[in-house]
Design brief:
With 192 residues, this protein is α+β, with helices and mostly antiparallel strands. It contains five helices and twelve strands. The radius of gyration is 19 Å and the shape is globular. The mean pLDDT is 93.
Length: 192
C-alpha cells in the first residue's frame, strides 16, 4: 500500500443532521489509517462562482456587503451560487449582471478552489469577465450590497494590509495584480 493510500479515511457511517436551501450538515464516522475511528462534521455546500471583472484597463468591480457569519461588511468580488440546471459560466454571467449591473461578452474559466476543505466541500469556480457593458442591477430581496470600483494596485495594497479578508477575493486580486499589464493592454490570453 502506498503512503497516499494509507492516508485515506474510510467512511463507516454518514448521518444527515440538517438540510437547508444552500447547505446540508452531516456527521461521518470514519476509520483512520491507524484503524482508529473519528467523527467528521461536514457541510455540503452548493457550488458557487466568482468573477474577476476588470474595466477601463486597471479598475476592478467589487461589492461590499454585510456577512452575518463574521458580523462585518466585507469587500468581495461579485459571486453567487450556481442555480439548478445552470452551468457555472451561465451563473457567472447572471451574477455579474445581478450584483454589479454589467454584462460580459465573454466569461473565461480560470480555476476551481475549495473554501475550507477541513469541513466543507464548497467549491467556487473563478471566471474572468471580458467585454463589459452597462446593464441593470437585479439584487435578490435579501441582498443589500454596494458596488465599488478600485484599481488593481489599490486592491493589492488592501490585501497586503489585511483590509480584504475574503479568500476568493484575495485569490482574484492576486491573480489580477499578477496579470495587470495584460488587463491594461487588453491583450488577455487566458486559457478557455
Amino acid at each position: 500500500m502506498t503512503q497516499e493510500q494509507e492516508a485515506i479515511e474510510r467512511t463507516i457511517k454518514s448521518e444527515d443532521i440538517y438540510e437547508g436551501r444552500i447547505v446540508r450538515l452531516r456527521v461521518e464516522t470514519v476509520e483512520l489509517p491507524n484503524r482508529a475511528y473519528a467523527k467528521r462534521e461536514i457541510v455540503d455546500h452548493a457550488k458557487g462562482v466568482g468573477i474577476i471583472a476588470v474595466h477601463d484597463g486597471d479598475q476592478m468591480y467589487m461589492v461590499r456587503q454585510y456577512r452575518c457569519a463574521v458580523k462585518e461588511r466585507l469587500l468581495e468580488i461579485p459571486a453567487g451560487l450556481v442555480e439548478p440546471g445552470e452551468n457555472p459560466q451561465e451563473a457567472a454571467m447572471r451574477e455579474l449582471e445581478e450584483e454589479v449591473g454589467q454584462k460580459a461578452t465573454k466569461m473565461t474559466y480560470l480555476l476551481d478552489s475549495y473554501a475550507s476543505p477541513g469541513f466543507t466541500n464548497e467549491k467556487l469556480s473563478l471566471f474572468i469577465a471580458e467585454g463589459l457593458t452597462p446593464s441593470e442591477q437585479h439584487l435578490d430581496d435579501t441582498e443589500f450590497l454596494d458596488v465599488e470600483s478600485h484599481s488593481i494596485e489599490e486592491l493589492y495594497r488592501m490585501v497586503m494590509n489585511f483590509e480584504v479578508v475574503d479568500a476568493k477575493s484575495i485569490i482574484a486580486i492576486l491573480f489580477a495584480y499578477q496579470h495587470r499589464d495584460e488587463f491594461r493592454s487588453g491583450k488577455l490570453c487566458f486559457k478557455e
